[in-house]
Amino acid sequence: MNQAILFLGAALVFVPLAVRLGLGSVLGYLLAGVVIGPMALGLVSDPQALLHVSELGVVLMLFVIGLELEPKRLWAMRGMVFGGGAAQMGVCAAAVGSVGWALGWTWQASLIGALALALSSTAIVVALLQERNLMPAPLGRHGFSMLLFQDMAAIPLLALAAVLGQAAPPSASPAAAASVAWWWQLGAVAAVVLLGRYVAYPVMHFVARMQVRELFTGFALLLVLGVAALMGQVGLSMGLGAFLAGVLLASSEYRHALESDILPFKGLLLGLFFIAVGMGMDLGLLVSMPVQVVAGLLLVVGLKTLAVWALAPWLGLKGRDKLLLALLLSQVGEFAFVVLSAAKLSGALSASQADLLTLIAALSMASTPLLLKVFDWACREKSPERPADIFEDAHPPVIVVGFGRYGQTVARLLMAAGITPTVIDHDANTVDSARRFGFKVYFGDATHSDLLHAAGIEHAQAVVVAIDDVAQCNRLVSTLQHSHTHVRIVARARDARHAMELAEMGVAHVERELFESSLRSGRSVLEVLGMDRTQSKQLADNFRRHSLEFLRHAQSERHVAESFIERLRQTREQFEREMQADLERQARHESKAGWHVQGPGR
């Protein structure tokens, strides 16, 4: 209990601090582990025990990732997994292994050390990809494919470490052992596939019908941990087994329920994993052999970065994506600790060599968030700005600014009516993606008057302002009202407050981005529950009327938080009373049984 309080307290101190400094949550967990570990305050003396428990966080993470990949999609990724993954490990191992060979290490030590250091951290890379919303992007798919190949390669590396060493029992037959292990591993994989397809789903259906959420959560944990334990018993990666189980259940109707139940445990255990890694750093080597540690860290991270960067064009990545992928995969992975430990036990690596490489691996994990921080700063400060596009149509009837989900719908409706708008967006990725789908979108910042003139603002009758950023939206509206008074402005409001701001600026046509779609969803729910379609429409219309009245009456109070909140509360309560009274009045006058709404408290 005391250690649990200690871990949670350390995380609550260092993780928010690291996030506030822009270093990411992973580095915060690592710092927490260093501070409370044996090399600093010494509050925890056995980090290895925590590491074994917290590795379940990696297992749960891989299960959740598997839930996002249907078998067809995984099969489609086979080229990236076995092609890109094998190439990444081969190139990185060759680059790092050459250093060991040059230092006079044996070929066995150079080989197993290089292959271990070629592994990257699934936990760190996936967490950073998710933080940056890059998992669906080509960069994220290639990075994850390489990590998946590494997870599969970790088990053969353990066998290789034993074969290369001198500590294997002479009576053991490596060929026979490998044969037995191969049959056991094949049987375990087949068992997981069969259980996932023909047992897990019926049991989940039975548990879900009992409508006891805690029981469903317990079954989800039992499923993941059971599969992981089975794979671990036959010498396969527990994470790989959990990933396979997730893939098999990706098509299940319970996929989202499983994901929501597992996520809290995954996040907690993954944080503990990083804390354990931080506690396990033997920082004493920084004092006894600082040159070797620092030089080794720079060489490993630098060579892996250079190798992946050189490989990236073969994967179809260009520009900043090449360097970003290289930096993301530059650290050494968590499975390297297991491989290095096995190599030390077998004698393939000496104790001093294994300890040095283990510290380098741990420090490389801490280096990745720092390198990404430098990357973000360099891209923001030093990258040249993309010049605005040259406009082909100098007489557009309508200019649409912003080509997100809102702007796309407006532009497509206009084109369906035979009106070709000039569409402008300031995000280069959005512009390039839209052009691949056949849309003519121009890159540029429409808040600049010179770009508006180049786009033909003098000939436009209307401008649709569909920008996500509230400040940019208001700035463009102000520019149009002062310099181009002839155009009619149709503006997208992010929320009620933004709608009030635009109305205050004199914009006559303001639409809240989610308001109408939310009303339609509410009407659909009422109809599903049995309400008459006419009645549900009337209720939605009344809600729209009350909302517009609220915007008009609260206009002067929106700058005073207390008054605005009180006005919102009164309006909500008044609307609910009126609607309940109206429904009850209709129910009394209906001549036949119909849909009945119970009032609050009934």
Overview of this structure, please?
The chain has 602 residues and is mainly alpha-helical. It has 3 domains: 48-167 and 178-373, Na+/H+ antiporter like fold; 395-513, NAD(P)-binding Rossmann-like Domain (Rossmann fold), CATH 3.40.50; 531-602, no CATH class. Helices cover 70% and strands 4% of the residues. It is built from 25 helices and 6 strands. It has a 6-stranded parallel β-sheet with strand order 3-2-1-4-5-6, sandwiched between helices. β2 (422-425), α19 and β3 form a beta-alpha-beta unit. α6 (107-118) runs antiparallel to α8 (138-164), α14 (290-315) packs across α15 and α16 runs antiparallel to α17. The longest helix is centred in the first third of the chain and has 36 residues, at 174-209. The chain starts with a helix and ends in a 13-residue tail after the last helix. Mean pLDDT is 78; it is low at 167-180 and 591-602.
Give the SSE map:
Layout: H1 2-20, H2 25-36, H3 47-67, H4 71-76, H5 78-102, H6 107-118, H7 122-131, H8 138-164, H9 174-209, H10 213-233, H11 238-248, H12 255-279, H13 284-288, H14 290-315, H15 320-328, H16 335-346, H17 351-382, E1 398-401, H18 405-416, E2 422-425, H19 428-436, E3 441-443, H20 449-455, E4 462-465, H21 470-483, E5 488-493, H22 496-504, E6 509-512, H23 515-528, H24 533-553, H25 561-589
Helix pairs in contact: 1-2, 2-12, 2-17, 3-11, 3-12, 5-6, 5-8, 5-14, 6-8, 6-16, 7-8, 8-16, 9-10, 9-11, 10-11, 14-15, 14-17, 15-17, 16-17, 23-24, 24-25
Protein structure class: mainly alpha
- The counted number of beta strands is 6
Termini separation comes to 44 Å
- Which strand order does the major sheet show? 3-2-1-4-5-6
Number of domains: 3
Helix fraction by DSSP (H/I, runs of at least 4): over 70%
> What top-tier CATH class of the largest domain fits best?
Mainly Alpha
The CATH architecture of the largest domain = Up-down Bundle
Low-pLDDT parts are 167-180, 591-602
The coarse silhouette is globular
Describe the largest sheet: 6 strands, parallel
Radius of gyration: 30 Å
Give the strand content: under 5%
- The number of helical segments is 25
Averaged pLDDT, please? 78
CATH topology descriptor of the largest domain: Na+/H+ antiporter like fold
